[in-house]
Design goal:
With about 400 residues, the chain is an all-alpha fold. The protein has 2 domains: about 1-55, no CATH class; about 80-405, Ribonucleotide Reductase, subunit A (Orthogonal Bundle). Helices cover about 70% and strands about 0% of the residues. The protein has 17 helices and 2 strands. It has helices at about 1-10, 15-30, 30-40, 45-80, 80-85, 100, 110-125, 130-145, 145-150, 170-195, 200-210, 225-250, 255-285, 285-300, 315-325, 330-345, 355-385, and strands at about 390-395, 400-405. A two-stranded antiparallel ribbon has the order 1-2. A hairpin with a 5-residue loop joins strand 1 (about 390-395) and strand 2. The structure holds fe (ii) ion (FE2) (2 copies). The site of one fe (ii) ion has 5 residues, from helix 10.
Amino acid sequence: MPGLTTMMALAPPPLSVKRRFSTTSRRNKETPATTMLLLEKRFPCSPHLRRRSWSRRAATATATAICQEQQMMERLAEDGWVDAHMLPLLTPVEEAWQPADLLPSFAASADEQRSQVAELQARAAAVPDDLLVCLVGNMVTEEGLPTYLSMGNRVAGGGDATGCDEHGWARWLRGWAAEENRHGDLLNRYLYLCGRVDMRRVETTVHHLLRRGMRAIPRPSSPYHSLIYGAFQERATFVSHARTAGLAARHGDDCLAKLCGVIAADERRHEAAYTRASARAFEADPDGMVRALAAVMRAKVTMPGELMTDGRDERLFDHFSAVAQRSGVYTAADYGDMVEHFVRRWKVAELGAGLSGEGRRAQDYVCGLPRKIRRMEELAHDRAAQMEAQHVSFSWVFDRPVRIH
Ligand SMILES: [Fe+2]
Ligand SMILES: [Fe+2]
C-alpha cells in the first residue's frame, strides 16, 4: 500500500498534533475551522492534513445543505402544503381495496372456496416462467417495505420521530406505508395460491433482503435526494406492475392482470405525490435541487431490491433484471424515458438565473443524460443481439431454467 505509507511518512506524529490542537484551542477558544487553518499553516505540505481539512469542509457544507433542506420540509408541513397537495393522494381507508377483495374468499362455502382456488390455479397455469420470475422479483421488492419505511424516517424534517407524529410528512409516510403494505400481501397470497412457485425459496429471499437492507441514494438524510428518488422509484414500480398486468392478460390470467393493475394504480398516485413535492422544492431552491438531481443520477437510481439473494445465487437481482429486460417488464429504455420525463416535468432546462456554477454544470449533465442513456442502451441492445441464448436456473420456479439473453 504505497499510498498509505507515503501518507504516514508525511503526516506529523499524532500525539504532537493532538497536544498542539488541544492547548491552542483551549487558550484562544478557537473554532475547529481556525484550528485547522493553524495546523495547515504549520504543516503546509501534509497531504494528510489537506485531505482531512477538505473532508471536514465538505462535511460542513453537506450538513449546512441538509439543514436548509430540513427547514424547507418543515415549512411545507407547517404552512399546510403537505396536507393540501400530498395527503389527498392517499386513498381513504374505507374506500381502499384490500387483498381479500381480489383473491378467493374463505368466507364462502368449502365447495365455493375450492372452486375459486381451482379457477385461479387454472388461469395461472398458462403464465410462463419468465413472467413468474418478474412477478416474484416485484413481490420480493414490495416485501422489503420495513427497510423503505426506515429509510423514510431518516429524512431530515420528513420523518416520524415518535411513531405517531402529527405533522404532514409523518402522516404521509404512514399512509404511504399502509398502502404499500397491501402490495406485498396481495402478490404473496396470489403466488402462494397459484402453486407455481417454490414459496420457501421466495420467502427465504425476502428474509435475506430484509437482513441486507438497501443502498439507494447518496445522502439518505437529504430531503431533496429522497423526494427525487421517491419520484423515480414510484414511476419505475408503476411501469413494472402495469407491464406485468398487460402480459398476464395476454396469457389469459385475468385475476393476475387485475392484481397488478390495482397495484400499478397505487404506484401512479405515489409517483404523483413525490413528483409534486420535488416540483415544489425546485421552485423553492432550484440550485439545490438541480445539484441533488445530478448527484442522484450520477449514483444511478438502483431498485430498492438490489441486494436480494435466495442464499444460492449472489447475482439474483442481476438475473431477475435481465429477465425483466428481456420480457419487456422493465427495460433500460424505460430508465432513459423516465429521466427525460422528469427533466421535462421539473423544467430543468429552463432553470436560469440564480443557478451557481455547480448548479449550471449539474443542469448540463442532467439535460444531456437521456441522450447518453439512449446511446448506451442501443450499444447494449446490439451486443445482446450478437450473444448466444443464455439461461439461468431460478430457485423461485423450482430451479427451472429461464432465458436471460
Ligand atoms: Fe408498491
Ligand atoms: Fe408506491
